[in-house]
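Run log, item B.
One chain of 173 residues. Sequence copied directly from the ordering sheet:
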Amino acid sequence: MSDEQTTPPTGAQTTTGDATTPIDPKILHDFGLTAQQITDMETKYSVPASVRAGYPDLVALLIKTESMNPEEREYWFQVLPIMNDEQIVKLRTILVNEREQLKKIDEEYNSEIGKINQAHKSEWNAFEAQEKRKILSDAEKKHEEQETENEDALLQKLQNVDEPSEVPAGDPP
């Protein structure tokens, strides 16, 4: 075990039962947990003081793992004090590998979602541009029709003006 795991740093405290154990701020940060979340989980799962003090990283790993149900977590918290060093290392390795694999999967998933969103964004932009062109085309067509009607009306008026009206006989125009 490293000094980091056995020497509790200063920071937030958990109090479960009659024991008070500092929570490493690095663990809180690395696992995206708050001291209150750890305290709540330690209470929920009756985490032994020896586990809290000796394996704070394993407590966080067990809390954050997605592959265990509550009964399995409780089992591991209770069996951890009687496990030998080799078994603890294996458990830690399994939980760390799981965490890294899930993180890698999440990154790949987010990357793919980003690509899909970008592709759909391009399609959406093309659709919007096409709709705008259609609206402009329809407006232009309507305007041209209105102009044609206005021209026809003006031509009709001009024709009416050019045609001589009946002038009474005897009066020269």
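Observations after the first pass:
- Residues 84-158 form one domain.
- Strands lie at 12-16, 19-23.
Flagged for discussion on Thursday.
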